[in-house]
Specification:
It is a single chain. By secondary structure, the protein is α+β, with helices and mostly antiparallel strands. The protein has one domain: Ribosomal Protein S5, domain 2, CATH 3.30.230. It has 3 helices and 4 strands. It has a 4-stranded mixed beta sheet with strand order 1-2-4-3, sandwiched between helices. The chain starts with 10 loop residues before the first helix and ends with a helix. The structure holds 2 RNA strands.
RNA sequence: CGAGUCGGUCGGACGGUCGCGUGAGGUGGUCCGCCACCUCCCGAGGAAGGUCCGGACUCCGAAGAGCAGGGUGGUGGGCAACGCCCACCCACGGUGACGUGCGGGACAGUGCCACAGAGAACAGACCGCCAGCGGCCCUGGCGCCCACGGGCGGCAGGGUGCGGGCAAGGCUGAAACGGUGGUGUAAGAGACCACCAGCGCCCCGGGUGACCGGGACGGCUAGGUAAACCCCACCCGGAGCAAGACCAAGAGGCCCCCGUCACGGCGGGGGCUGCGCCGGUGCCCGAGGACUGCUCGUCCGAGCCGGCGGGUAGGUCGCCAGAGCCCACCGGCAACGGUGGGCCUAGACAGAUGGCCGUCCGGGGCUCGCGCCCCGACAGAAUCCGGCCUACAGACCGGCUCGUCCG
RNA sequence: GCUCCCGUAGCCCAACCGGCAGAGGCAGACGGCUUAAACCCGUCCCAGUGUGGGUUCGAACCCCACCGGGAGCA
């Protein structure tokens, strides 16, 4: 699971990341990636949040998807630069995706968001 | 053995590895609020679900009275309480075990009962049945008269008319004011009689009671609907953990204390309250408000109403040991209660309880087989309990009933 | 946590207090008008009232339980 320090727990942080961040997605999920200037922060940090809406399914399904996504993001934390603000939003097809498929989707989405961000 | 019925239990197991949450202990750091790391304990359900009831708890005024409103509805018991549970009664269904039932009251009153039908709620009279009366018509036979064409009289039958008697039979309908047989009569009718069904009332016996069994008498018959209004009995104050309590901050307002002063103020401290602007209205003749709809009664009372704008991520507690769970014995048909012993069992707040792998278990598919592959029901705590209802792969245990065969 | 509303034809929506099992419009099909079409006119087609059960002689309507959709309050 995600260690407590990198959990995004502030509603406003979710809002700014989803508004300002680079967006990229697959059929099963969408990521919003925003890298803030490290010098603006008291302590260099990364924050990650996961959003699983009601369209994904009932509570059991939502929880399973959310837990899988948090595990997947935790494994990739080291590849993200300091100052990263990442929101992963699950879409309905994620309910039937396997763990490995979700991992590939996440990699592709993060990769796309990073490349468009670098170009801009 | 087959078919069925009722009740109960479980609802994947074990291990490895990487993680997360609460708590305990330890080490280190610290701005003393806490943070990081290590070890250990514990970490979703029988429905956690729907939110249909009942409570605990908290605040609202101490939790008032009457009305209104809502709920429940056989009897007795259980329970903190209930619309829940148990036992029994009654009705219906089933060969049976058993199941189902909002199961009080229709002589307190009101409403409704379409269509059809003669008639639908103090019954009614269409067809029909019956005798009587009056005239006319038709038919039959009898008597008399005759000019032989017929005419008159009275009788019987039929038709028609009038005022009556009757309600058996017919038809309609979900339902038509008892059923069958007989006596009786002009025809008939509970008008009367026997039996049956049903109603009321009384007596005896049984039961705490709903009610059951038996007997006597009466009047001869009473429609249905209250999940229509209603009546009766009993119960219900409202809101809900975003309840609510404490701590910190808070522009402005009010009050108190101290200092100073040119007596207008200014500065500091403390307490209560809690955003600003505009308009209307009220302030000893009282606006408005509380007791949650109304009235009474009681109380508060200097603000109240409308519009516009602004603000709305603080922390801690509440927050988990409880009408708790398990075992034994005793009482009780049972629900349940009592006594003794043992156990500690989630408390998050962008919200932990997980990801991956292996072995086994169960199910399915392929295969002669070894084996291989796939799948693991319904579903995720949010203040906490007791129920109800709904969803659910499969496995296990027990009671009972019916049928067949064997002994 | 709590409160309320809705569900009728492919779509929008009636049915008054329970009474022939259901009105109308759009859409669709056919015919007429037209050179052809639109408009217009006529005819037809389309429902068993979200699901299951109950009360009643009789239910879209009343009662109960579910299913689905929506709104509001703290």
């Amino acid at each position: 699971m995600l260690p407590p320090a990198v959990r995004m727990r502030d509603g406003r942080e979710f809002g700014t990341t989803r508004r300002r961040g680079r967006r990229a997605g697959t059929t099963s999920l969408v990521v919003h990636l925003n890298v803030v200037d490290v010098t603006d922060l008291d302590v260099p940090s990364r924050e990650v949040g996961v959003v699983t809406g009601k369209s994904v399914g009932p509570a059991v399904t939502r929880n399973r998807v959310k837990r899988r996504l948090r595990h997947l993001v935790a494994d990739r934390l080291d590849t993200l630069p300091m100052g990263t603000r990442l929101v992963v939003r699950a879409l309905p097809p994620s309910a039937t995706r396997s763990f490995d498929d979700l991992g590939r989707d996440l990699d592709r989405a993060i990769d796309k968001a990073t490349r468009t961000g670098a170009r801009a």
